[in-house]
Design brief:
InterPro entries: CobQ/CobB/MinD/ParA_Nub-bd_dom, P-loop_NTPase, ParA/MinD_ATPase. With about 425 residues, the chain is α/β, with parallel strands linked by helices. It has 17 helices and 13 strands. The strands form 2 sheets. The protein has an 8-stranded mixed sheet, sandwiched between helices. A 5-stranded parallel sheet has the order 2-1-3-4-5, sandwiched between helices. Strand 3, helix 3 and strand 4 form a beta-alpha-beta unit.
């Protein structure tokens, strides 16, 4: 069966390609010659094609356009306008796997289109199934306290801290857990992807720091982001820990596109052992019915991070209201992070909020209403938290003997074990 293909190649190269495909009608059929990116995306949205051949000189084509095409089930093949190594690298950094030189014949382009469509139909789903099997196997394993399992550099794990609304302490845990992982000798990148109230920079005393995550997002959208660029954008807090700070002004949420964050996380996996991501509580997808453009989704960053996560820490407050919200968030997590291993974390555990023997009460409540068998319980330690926040330092630096710091060190050990790849 002939594959329906869109062609968006500026100049005479488009006419030459279409003419050359006259002898390949059994393999490919040109359903539309698109004048610009808007025409290309609109036709793809209509479901008229399975693939698109795009010229590298097509103005306005970026990572967001590529993500839109893939969401429509359209595979992309790029045709170099000029045989240039820098252009080839940029398009591959955008995420296009098939970039062909100008000398490629029409028949070879048709064969590459068929290959790209085949990979899109089988390869991505197979990868998703493989990650799901790894996650399922991880869920069945025990998690002995204090056992350390190394993560191989270049195959970093994405750890997302998410949870319900309310003052759960999610950002505080993200900062200090990242510091504990770095203190254990791992390379860690802390990413502040909260589009409602980014604050990791303030917690770490980086008050004059520009939102480096947005700079990395722009580079990812333009196809300029690689490991070196990412390391340059991320400020080093102390050896082993780098930070991509988010925008303190909530009005800049639209600058962090989901496709850009996905690309940042993919590249970060190659650069560090751990990518710790702090996201907003809101994970509703209703914005898609509000905006005409699918890119304009304020919760898109949270959804993209959860979808890419290897491990999700669901953080909730250890009080009656916080636990009820946490149960609901836990129940919604399988749809948001189908391949991420969940781990429940009840924060600020104290008798005053839930009564005597708070650990037993919280454990029993989470097991009864959410099926959580082994939650992490972190003690309430306001004195230590206030001290390190005032100093703009981490618990491991300023309060190494604090009760919360000891609990976070144990949580870091557990995280290392929970997110370790399954042995064959």
């Amino acid at each position: 069966m002939s594959l329906p293909v869109l062609v968006a190649v500026p100049g005479d190269a488009e006419a030459a390609l279409v003419a050359g495909w006259e002898s390949c009608r059994r393999e490919v059929t040109v359903v539309r010659r698109c004048a610009d990116v808007a025409d290309l995306l609109a036709t793809a949205t209509a479901g008229l094609a399975r693939a698109a051949v795009v010229g590298t000189d097509l103005a306005g084509f970026d990572a967001e356009a590529l993500a839109h095409l893939r969401a429509c089930g359209v595979a992309v093949v790029a045709l170099l306008a000029v045989d240039d190594e820098a252009t080839d690298k940029r398009w591959r950094q955008l995420g296009v796997q098939h970039v062909l030189p100008t000398s490629t014949s029409a028949a070879e382009v048709a064969a590459t289109v068929s290959e790209a469509v085949g990979e899109g139909a089988g390869g991505s789903r197979a990868a998703t199934r493989s990650r799901s099997r790894v996650a399922d196997a991880d869920r069945a394993r025990p998690s002995p306290a204090g056992r350390r399992v190394d993560v191989t550099p270049g195959t970093g794990r994405v750890l997302v801290l998410w949870g319900p609304h309310g003052s759960t302490g999610r950002t505080t845990l993200a900062v200090h857990l990242a510091a504990e992982l770095a203190a254990a000798g791992d390379e860690v990148l802390l990413v502040d992807a909260d589009t409602y109230g980014a604050s990791t920079g303030q917690v770490l005393g980086m008050l004059d720091e520009a939102p480096s995550l947005l700079a990395a997002a722009r580079a990812a959208t333009d196809g300029r982001l690689d490991v070196a660029t990412l390391r340059h954008a991320a400020a080093e807090v102390f050896p082993g820990l780098r930070v991509l700070t988010g925008a303190a002004a909530p009005s800049r949420w639209h600058e962090l596109r989901p496709s850009a964050l996905e690309r940042i996380l993919d590249i970060a996996r190659q650069a560090v052992h751990w990518v710790v991501v702090d996201v907003a509580a809101c994970a509703e997808q209703e914005e898609e019915s509000t905006f005409d453009l699918p890119a304009l989704r304020r919760n898109g960053a949270t959804l993209a991070a959860l979808a890419a996560a290897d491990l999700v820490l669901v953080v909730g407050a250890a009080d009656p209201v916080g636990l009820q919200r946490m149960v609901r968030a836990w129940q919604a997590l399988p749809d948001l992070a189908p391949t991420g291993r969940p781990l429940a974390v009840a924060n600020r555990v104290r008798p005053a909020a839930v009564g005597r023997t708070p650990e037993r009460r919280i454990t029993e409540a989470l097991e009864r209403f959410a099926g959580v068998e082994d939650p992490v319980l972190l003690p309430d330690d306001p004195t230590a938290c206030d001290a390190v926040l005032l100093q703009g330092r981490t618990l491991s630096e300023a309060a190494p003997r604090a009760h919360l710091r000891r609990a976070l060190a144990l949580l870091a050990d557990r995280v290392r074990f929970e997110a370790a790849p399954t042995a064959p």
